[in-house]
Write a structure and sequence with these properties.
Length: 383
């Protein structure tokens, strides 16, 4: 047990795996020579070959370590620690005994595979890396945050009656470290955050990561379910972007209107003045029917019409993302007015509550008085 604990400590130490020059004394095996604290591990290859290609040469070896490791190498040279050598040999035998067709179970615990995945040196054409990528997406909080917000902000059921995401959808506007709960200049947009209208004038960089190797066709809709309809005193859905026949796989994740069929060109978000915040929602549908989906009949539709279109074209929702905008400052109003005038060809509407009537004022705006006759009373007497 003591030997196993010592080996595990060395495996968890990034400096030791990188050939570090100093280690805490408690991390050095009692069976190893004292010079192990200052000597770098000998360059040796693993007792088994990895299913992946040559790793990147720019992977950091660990927090606080400025050196760069070009590839994974065993934490200990052969013969240094018998328990470690036995562990590598056991992993090799385990791989040889596995009969699963995709090799995930055989390679998922391989130290070189895990090292490459931790350093973002992955090849998603290989099943084991697709498995680890999907596992991380489902367990690192990204999917939980998305599901929490689409339900808390009623994207489900306002846009879709229900959805169980199976693909990772990332929406980015511009370049930067990301747009999160506390703002940001550009980059990947967190689900449900507010994004300035000046950043969404151009189509987003859309990345959809399915976890299957073969290429499948998808349809993408970007809609706004919060367009006021004053006649029905409810809300309509406006289609901002509609693309079909998008080829996607684990290694082909970028959405391009060039390689797909753009049924309706991108129109920038334009939240109307006086309306509540708008939820600009991007939905990814897998095309399960044989025929390619047709274009929608109009840009502005009722929610029922959108659901009917989805059902008629055999579209299955597999991914979703949304962000919010609201028109409450002069810059946003200027952008919205420009989009309405130049793109939609009409004046931007302004919404708000009707003024409350004052029962104590007449039509001229004067209050009734017991001492003076109102304008309405004088007009009635004149008749």
């Amino acid at each position: 047990m003591a030997a196993y604990r010592t080996v595990r400590q060395k495996l968890l130490c990034p400096l030791y795996q990188a050939g570090g020059s100093s280690l805490p004394c408690s991390w050095i095996s009692s069976s190893a020579p004292a010079s192990a604290a200052s000597a770098s591990p000998a360059s040796s290859s693993s007792s088994s070959s990895s299913p992946s290609s040559t790793p990147s040469t720019s992977s950091a070896t660990g927090p606080g370590d400025t050196r760069i490791a070009s590839q994974w190498k065993p934490a200990l040279p052969p013969g240094r620690e018998p328990a470690y050598d036995a562990a590598l040999e056991s992993l090799k035998e385990h791989r040889n005994q596995q009969s699963d067709k995709d090799g995930v179970e055989a390679w998922v615990n391989d130290p070189e595979v895990l090292w490459k995945f931790a350093h973002d040196d992955v090849d998603l054409s290989q099943p084991v890396f697709r498995f680890l990528r999907e596992k991380a997406w489902r367990q690192n909080g990204a999917l939980d945050r998305l599901l929490e917000r689409i339900r808390a902000m009623n994207v489900v059921p306002d846009v879709l009656p229900t959805i169980a995401p199976t693909v990772d959808v990332q929406v980015a506007y511009g370049a930067g470290s990301g747009i999160g709960d506390h703002g940001g200049e550009g980059g990947d947009v967190w689900p449900g955050v507010f994004v300035n209208t000046t950043k969404t004038l151009s189509p987003p960089q859309l990345t959809v990561t399915p976890f299957h190797a073969e290429v499948r066709k998808y349809t993408i809709l970007m809609v706004d379910p919060d367009v006021p309809n004053e006649l029905s005193a409810s809300f309509d859905t406006f289609v901002h972007w509609h693309v079909s026949n998008v080829p996607l796989s684990a290694t082909q994740t970028s959405v391009s209107a060039v390689s797909a069929n753009e049924l309706q060109a991108y129109i920038p978000p334009h939240p109307q003045d006086g309306s509540p915040y708008h939820r600009y929602t991007t939905v990814v549908f897998e095309q399960t029917g044989e025929a390619a989906p047709a274009a929608l009949s109009a840009r502005t539709l009722s929610p029922a019409a959108v659901q009917k279109y989805v059902q008629e074209n055999s579209l299955r929702p597999v991914g979703i993302h949304f962000f919010r905008q609201i028109c409450k400052d002069k810059e946003t109003k200027r952008v919205v007015e420009t989009i309405y005038r130049d793109t939609l060809g009409r004046e931007a509407p302004t919404y708000g509550n009707l003024p409350k009537s004052d029962p104590f004022r007449d039509s001229a705006g004067y209050r009734h008085s017991r001492y003076f006759e109102s304008a309405d009373e004088l007009a009635a007497q004149a008749i």
